[in-house]
C-alpha cells in the first residue's frame, strides 16, 4: 500500500475529526488540529508514501503536542475490523482470549512468602476483573496472614481498571474512594470506590504495604500505585513510572489505520489531578533492580525496632545486612 495525497488528506481529516469529537481534553484537541494543519501547510507529509512511516510521524506529532503516551496512530497491512466489545465477541474469540489470559495466569506471575513472614505478589498485568477474580483471590488469600506485603508492578504495563479496584479492595478495612473518572462522552464523572466484599481473605488496611515500580510501570498499574500512595496506604519504592493516565479505546480511521484515543481521565480526590506525562514518583527512589531488597530492608528495620527478643532481633539484622549491600540511587540506573 502506498499513500497518495488524497489518502493522506483523508486520513488526517478523519484523525482530526475523531480527536475533536472524543478526546478527553477538548482544549488540547484544538491544539492537535492546529498543529496537524500547520504541518500540512508546511508540506511535512507530502513525501510520505509509506503508511507505516506516516503512522509513526503522526503519533510523534500527537504525543509531542499533548504529552499523552496513550495517543497513537497504528497502521495494519490487514484490514482493521470495527472493534468489538467483550460481550459482542463470538464464543471462539472469547475462548481464545481466555486461553491467552490463562496462559499468563491472569497476570499473577509470582506469589511468595519471604523470610520473616513478608508477603510478595508480582503482577505482570491487570486482566479483566470478572475473569481474574478467582486467581487474585487465591493470591491474596495466600498472603493474607503475612506481617507485611510487597506488590511488584515493575513489569506491569496496565490492563483493566475494574481489576485495579478489585485488588485495592483487599487492602482497606472500609469502603474507600480511590479516584474519580471523567468521561468526555456525556461530560460525566464516575466515582470509583473499593468493594464492600471481596472473594477470599481481605488483607486489611493496617499492615505495611510496599509497591515496587519501574519506568515500565504504566497505565492501570500506575492507577493502582497513584491511588494507594496518595491515600497513604502504601510506600512506593523504585523508579518514576511511565506516565500514562488517560484511558481510552481504538477508533478506526480507515480500513488500515486506527487511532488509540483517550476518552476520559483519572482525577485523584487527594491531588485533584493525575500522573499523565509525569509518572508516579516513588517515595523511596532506587533503581528498579534494587527495589525489592530496599522494600524488604525497610520492613525488616521496622520489625527490628519493635522486637524485644534479642535473638530474633539479631536474626533480623543479619537478614538486613544480607539484603542491604549494593543498593544504588535511581539517578545512576541504566
Describe this structure in words.
The protein is built from nine helices and twelve strands. Helices cover 38% and strands 19% of the residues. It has two domains: 71 residues, no CATH class; 171 residues, 2-enoyl-CoA Hydratase, Chain A, domain 1 (Alpha-Beta Complex), CATH 3.90.226.10. Helix 2 packs across helix 3, helix 6 packs parallel to helix 7 and helix 8 runs antiparallel to helix 9. A six-stranded mixed beta sheet has the order 2-3-4-7-8-12, with helices on both faces. With 334 residues, it is an alpha/beta fold.
Feature tags:
alpha/beta, 2-enoyl-CoA Hydratase, Chain A, domain 1, six-stranded mixed beta sheet, 9 helices, elongated
Overall number of structural domains = 2
Radius of gyration from CA coordinates: 23 Å
CATH C-level category of the largest domain: Alpha Beta
Helix-residue proportion: 25-40%
List the secondary-structure elements in sequence, H or E: HHHEHEEHEHEEEHEEEEEHH
Oligomer: single chain
How many DSSP E strands?
Answer: 12
Shape: elongated
Mean pLDDT: 93
Uncertain spans:
none
CATH architecture of the largest domain: Alpha-Beta Complex
DSSP helix count? 9
Straight-line N-to-C gap: 39 Å
- The amount of beta strand, in percent, is 15-25%
What class would the helix/strand composition place it in?
A: alpha/beta
Q: How is the biggest beta sheet arranged?
A: 6 strands, mixed
CATH fold category name of the largest domain = 2-enoyl-CoA Hydratase, Chain A, domain 1
CATH-assigned homologous superfamily of the largest domain: 2-enoyl-CoA Hydratase, Chain A, domain 1
Strand neighbour order, sheet with most strands: 2-3-4-7-8-12
